[in-house]
Amino acid sequence: MVNPVHLRTLLEVTRLGSFAAAANRLGYTASAVSQQMSALERDTGVDLFQRSARSVLPTEAAVVMTRHAAKVLTDIEALMAAASRTHDTTSQELRLGIFPSLATYVLPRILRNPDWKSLGIDLRVSVAEPSLTIQGLRTGGELDVALVYQVGQSGLAWPHTVKRQWIGDDDFRVVLPAAWGIRTEAKMAADHLSDMPWIMHHPGTSDATVIERLFASCNLHPRVVAHSDDFHASLEMTAAGLGAALVPELALLHRPAGVVVLDVPEIRLARNIFALLINEKQTARVQLFVELLADTLGTLAPVRPG
Fold this sequence. Notes:
single chain, two-stranded antiparallel sheet
């Protein structure tokens, strides 16, 4: 009997091209992924990968199995969700902690998705920054799932009793007022931005520290004219000509007129988005919701300079 968990891991390995990338996506170690794929090869009696010291290449058998595995897993998930709805009425409620950008631009898309209604979830939402949301996992179990982000190796920490599952990345972009006359899609060296006025995070936060270190490494020493941790306010001030800013792509989905997005090769930074799941609350319904969230985030087109 083939283990569905191994099929899901196979999908990620073939999609991402490596055991390590699949491990990061699924919250396993690379060794665990390798062991799962070896077990799947034993169960099926076929070689699924050509392994070398630097890479793993899927065989034709793996490609064929991947095509069928996607449908099998979808059917299993639908079956589990349907059974859960009819069997366990006490688990209908999902208490969700979520940060503002995700609540603004991703959650509404999920709620409008026909697949959402089929899950039968009674959602309870708490919108707050990650540091506050994590408290709901620590103190009395007010939440079932916490959706948080981490910038670089910032100081965000969570209980060791929860499982961390990667959802996606939200890349930062440099934005300028269009009134400054810099052409759209312009590529610019970071140190050329030093003489410009900047809207920056409030100093002292973990995000601000990461950004300050990145700017310093690029020889970018901003002339700060405003501090703002509200990306919508930062974008509106940029549109009005106050200064440049560094904002994530999710916020740029509602970019105001008068804002230009630059390509600054030295500034490559992202908010890594994770779902924090309490082990005993990882029901089939919760997992389906998390996967729907990841799929929805993945469909949002990245913001191009312009």
